[in-house]
Structures are given as C-alpha cells and as structure tokens.
Design goal:
The complex is a heterodimer of chains A (394) and B (200). Chain A is an alpha/beta fold and 394 residues long. Chain A has two domains: 256 residues, Rossmann fold, CATH 3.40.50; 98 residues, Rna Polymerase Sigma Factor, Chain: A. Chain A has eleven helices and 14 strands. In chain A, helix 1 packs across helix 2 and helix 3 runs antiparallel to helix 4. The longest helix of chain A is centred in the last third of the chain and has 17 residues. An eight-stranded mixed sheet of chain B has the order 3-2-1-4-5-8-6-7, with helices on both faces. Classes of the chains: A alpha/beta (394), B alpha/beta (200). Chains A and B meet through helix 9, strand 14 and helix 11 of A and helix 2, strand 2, helix 3 and strand 3 of B.
C-alpha cells in the first residue's frame, strides 16, 4: 500500500464511555445526558511526564479521524497535512488526541444514538448541547487518558471555538491554545447562514420532526444545507479559479438541471455529505455554534484575565465567513488581559477553507510556536530557549 | 551582561539593550523579523512583544519563539491598557507611521518609557547632497528614492528635541550613531541616527 513516509499510517478509532446513569453529565442547559460515548483517535506517544499532549478539535462536519488512514481507505484524516511524523504537530514528539464532539454522528453520542430510556434513536429528544458541553466531555476523555495539562488545544472554525472555551473554562489545564479562523461569538450573518441550512433540512418532507431513522432521511434538505455551507467556505476568487463559468460536459434532462461546473460541484458535495452526516446532528451542532458566546455577560477585557497559557491566533485574508476582524477581537481580549499572544493574518485565496488547505504557512506558525511552548518551562514570562542568530554580515 | 563583547551587534541595538532593565516588559513597534527583540530576550530576559505589519516577518518572529501581532501599529496600540509595558520601542518606525504625534501619545500611554530611534535628516551628507545636487538625498541611513520609500516623515535630531519640549517629554538618555560608531560632538550634523529614551 502506498502510505507516504510522513503519514502516521493506519489508525483506528477508539471509544470511551462515561456518565452512566445515575451519574449523567449535567449539560449547560441543565438537562442530563448519559451514558456518553466519545469516539477518539490518538497519534504518537504520551511522554513520561505527560507534557506533550495536544488536543485537536474539529469543525462542524469533522470527526475524530484527524490524521492517518483507516484500514482499506484512501482518504486520510481531515488534518493529515498538519499531524504526522515531522509535520507541524510532529507525532515523533507529541501525542495528539482528536475526538468527535457530543451531538455528532461519527461515533460519539448524538441524536442518532439510542436513547436508553426508549431504546430508539434520540432524534429531537436529544438535549441541546453547547460548545462548553463538548469541551466538558473532552475533559472527561483527557482524565481517562491521564492527561492533566495539555501542551496545546487547537482547531479551526468550531474547533477554534472549543479552543477558546478551553481558555476560559479550563485555563489551568492548557499551556497554550491555537484558535484558528474563529470568533468569540457568531455575528447575525453567521447565524443567518446556519439558519438557512437548518430551514432547508426542516423543509424536507422526510424530516418528520427529526424522527426519520426508520425511513428515508431528509437527504435533499441536508444536501442544500451543505451546499450553502460550501459557498460560505470558499471565496469569490477561489470559486472563480476553480470553476470560472465553465459548463459541465453533460447536461441533465431538465431545463434547470445543473449545467455550470460550480452547480455540479455543489450538487456532488451535497450528495456526498448526506452519505456521511446525520441531519439532526447538523441542526444541533450549528445551533451550538450560534449559541456560543465566550464573552457572555463579561466584557471582552475580562474573559482571559489570569490566563497563563500562550496563545497563537491565526486568520486568513480571504475568509469572509470568519473574517480577520473577528480574530482581532480575540487578540484584543488577549492584550487587555496581558496574555502572551501571537497573531498572524495569513495570505490566502481559499476563504474559510484555508485553515484546512494553507498547510505551508500554518505549519510554519504552529511548528515553531509549539516547540517554543514545549521547550519553555511552565512559568509565564519565561523565555523560550531558542537559538538567537546575531547579526553577522552587516 | 557582556553586551560589549558582541561586536557583530548593530550599535543601535546595543544602545537600546543597555537602556533596558533586565526582566522588564517590552513592546517593539514595527519589530520586523524580531532581531532586536531576540537580543533583548537573550541578554535582558525581557517579556517581549512586537507589532509588525509584514506577514513574512511574522513567520520569522515566530521561528524565533517571539510573541508578535500581525497588525498596523496605528490600530494595534489603542487596544492595550495604560502602562502595559515598561518600554515601548520605535526604532526606525517613527518616520513610517502616518500620524507620529498620535502614535507617540498612544505609545506613552501604553509604555512607562519610550525608546525612539530614527535616521537624522540633517546629517552633513544629506545637507551637502541637497545643497550641491539639488535633489532629495539618498544616504546609507535614508537609502530610498523619493518615489519608492516607506518613510513618510523626515526629521532631524534638533527637530526631535523641539518636539520633546513641545510635548513636555523628559529625555532620560540619548545616543547618536554614525557608521556604527558613537557620535559625541555636534550630533545634529554628524550623526546618521538618533536614539532617545523618553518618559512622561
């Protein structure tokens, strides 16, 4: 099998179950959920003093399979460009953990899981979950793995929201955080796009108030939701470059069958998504993102007060779904709190998708940031033991 | 400690490093690829921060383990609380910001002390070039042609002293440099670069 040298190789998803009744997890809403299973994968080895652990948090449609290859599959994990031997998250040095969020549909407990009370899928009986709940569940997993303090927590988009939640809820358990292409809270525009997706699902006659598990799922609605999503993940420039106004080779039978290439692409993306994603999960997870507000009743100046972790904030220039000014709000909050932080606005034409695609620049930033956190002691203000090149030939 | 032994270090960096107290906090405005900040971390164990608009320079800073913000000085400064830093440094960036007066005000709010370094426009070589060629001077410290220069403002050491008086800034120390040597006598005529340590 042609597995590249810098791939972590064949990996397997593992499962951890906790919060069995009567010890259910109390969610932010006050509702109780249990038992909870988290699907997770790990890459690399945890070192003796357990100081090299990285938690990678996925975005809306991601899962625990962040790197490497599953047996007899050709497509690597969603962040394979960043995780592996010699990569930014070097699995020869670090121990990387990725888990599927609660509410998800890739092995973790979500609306498609069986409700122990009824013996049937939860459907809309599944409680509303928040980003904080997702993070609380991750804490349980890390306790199970014996990891007290993370070297870093990172992710893009909703993964970045989880990183921000870690900074606020568990500051003592992280030595650093890398929120990428994300925001302290959604703007009305971001909520609006999510709502179009949700309405598309709920307008599908197959939706049946979310109880579709014994018949056909609302595939058309979910596909449309995904199509809208894909438009927001790209940029005008990346779409123009990828499709232009090119026409498809074969046109469908009807007047309005897709004939532009971009239409065909969106249709293909939508149809593909339906095969691997649950419509109810889409509703719950997008709602969790919309409700997310890490500032809450505080002021942005207060949220990171006392945070000792080092922070690396990354934004991409063509990302209009999570524009750079939202990352700058995170940076401002860091400045107010005196947090040691770095911000880079990376040039890219990929739009929001850039955090998955611009691996060269991201690698440069994350690799060096991680090694300086890894090399530094725990104290804040302690300088990284870096070689300094003195000016030579002036 | 041992700053003098590093003959390779740029003299302006050496001057700045001498002024900065160990273990202090420093914000370098327009920190470039982080050369000065790295020296200050290594020699003075400062808590270093930088602001730099150039994305490529940011990568070099991160490679050196520095904490830096990829943003415009003029926008980035206003986000800090008062006296966030012991020192704010503007070495070579003063003449490149649109509104130096506003940036100074912010820098002195954010920092307890301000270190400023700039090319001296009244150095005799610029004066002579002006006088004899009748053209805007191009010198080692002002190496750009008028049509392609990051420098928006030109000032002399005397200009800067006037400015400090106008804004009631206290000059705690000053140093003058030409050809990597210190200039004592007649700095406004002989120095290519002026460096000032200021407080409110």
């Amino acid at each position: 099998m042609g597995i590249p040298d810098d791939s972590i190789g064949i990996v397997e998803t593992k499962y951890f179950t906790f919060a069995a009744p009567p010890h259910e997890m109390v969610l932010e809403s006050g509702e109780r959920l249990g038992p909870i299973t988290l699907a997770y994968e790990t890459y690399g080895q945890l070192d003796k003093d357990k100081s090299n652990a990285i938690l990678v948090a996925h975005a809306l449609s991601g899962d625990a399979h962040a790197a490497g290859l599953h047996h007899e599959e050709k497509t690597p994990g969603w962040w394979d460009s960043m995780i592996g031997p010699g990569k930014a998250m070097d699995t020869d040095k670090y121990f990387v953990v990725a888990s599927n969020v609660i509410g998800g549909c890739k092995g973790s407990t979500g609306p498609a899981s069986t409700n122990p009370k009824t013996g049937r899928p939860y459907g809309q009986d599944f409680p509303i979950v928040s980003i904080k709940d997702m993070v609380d569940a991750q804490v349980q997993l890390l306790d199970h793995l014996g990891i007290e303090r993370l070297l870093t927590v990172t992710g893009g988009s909703m993964g970045g929201m989880q990183a921000l939640q870690w900074m606020v809820s568990y500051p003592e358990r992280i030595r650093s955080a890398i929120p990428i292409s994300t925001a302290l809270k959604h703007t009305p525009q971001q909520i609006a796009f999510d709502e179009v997706g949700r309405q598309a699902i709920m307008a599908d006659p197959n939706w049946s108030e979310g109880n579709y598990y014994d018949h056909s799922p609302p595939a058309k609605g979910l596909a449309v939701a995904r199509m809208v999503g894909h438009i927001t993940y790209m940029s005008e420039a990346s779409m123009a470059e990828k499709f232009g106004r090119k026409m498809k080779e074969s046109k469908g039978p009807m007047k309005f069958s897709p004939d532009f290439e971009v239409e065909g692409y969106l249709e293909y993306r939508g149809e593909n998504f339906v095969k691997r994603f649950d419509a109810n999960s889409y509703l719950y997870i997008t709602k969790a993102m919309d409700y997310f507000d890490v500032v809450g009743r505080k002021t942005p100046a207060e949220i990171f007060k006392g945070l000792k972790a080092k922070v690396l904030v990354i934004a991409f220039k063509s990302d209009w779904l999570y524009p750079a000014h939202q990352s700058q709000e995170i940076v401002k909050a860091c400045k107010w709190a005196g947090v040691e932080a770095t911000y880079c606005e990376v040039h890219s034409t990929y739009g929001h998708d850039a955090f998955l695609l611009e691996s060269g620049e991201e690698t440069r930033l994350i690799k060096h940031f991680l090694s300086s956190v890894h090399a530094s002691g725990d104290g804040p203000g302690k300088a990284a033991s870096h070689e300094i090149r003195l000016p030579g030939n002036r | 400690m041992g700053l003098g032994r590093q003959r390779l270090m740029r003299l302006d960096y050496l001057v700045i490093a001498e002024w900065i107290k160990p273990e202090s906090s420093v914000l370098d405005l327009g920190c470039g690829d982080g050369e000065l900040l790295s020296i200050l971390v290594k020699e003075k164990h400062v808590r270093a921060n930088g602001i730099e608009i150039d994305e490529q320079a940011i990568y070099k800073c991160v490679e050196k383990g520095l904490s830096v913000f990829n943003e415009d000085i003029e926008e980035g400064l206003s986000d800090y609380p008062d006296e966030s830093f012991d020192y704010v440094i503007m070495n070579g960036s003063l003449q490149q910001v649109k509104k130096p007066d506003t940036v100074f005000k912010q820098a002195l709010r954010v920092g307890k002390r301000l270190i400023v370094g700039f090319p001296n426009f009244s150095h005799y070589s610029t004066r002579l070039q002006m006088l004899f060629s009748g053209k805007v001077p191009v010198t080692p410290s002002l190496p750009y042609q008028w049509y392609d220069t990051p420098n928006l403002h030109f000032l002399s050491i005397s200009n800067f002293r006037d400015y400090c008086k106008l804004r009631s800034l206290k000059i705690e120390a000053s140093a003058f440099v030409a050809k990597e040597k210190r200039v004592g006598l007649l700095p406004n005529l002989r120095a290519e670069q002026g460096l000032f340590l200021l407080s409110k």
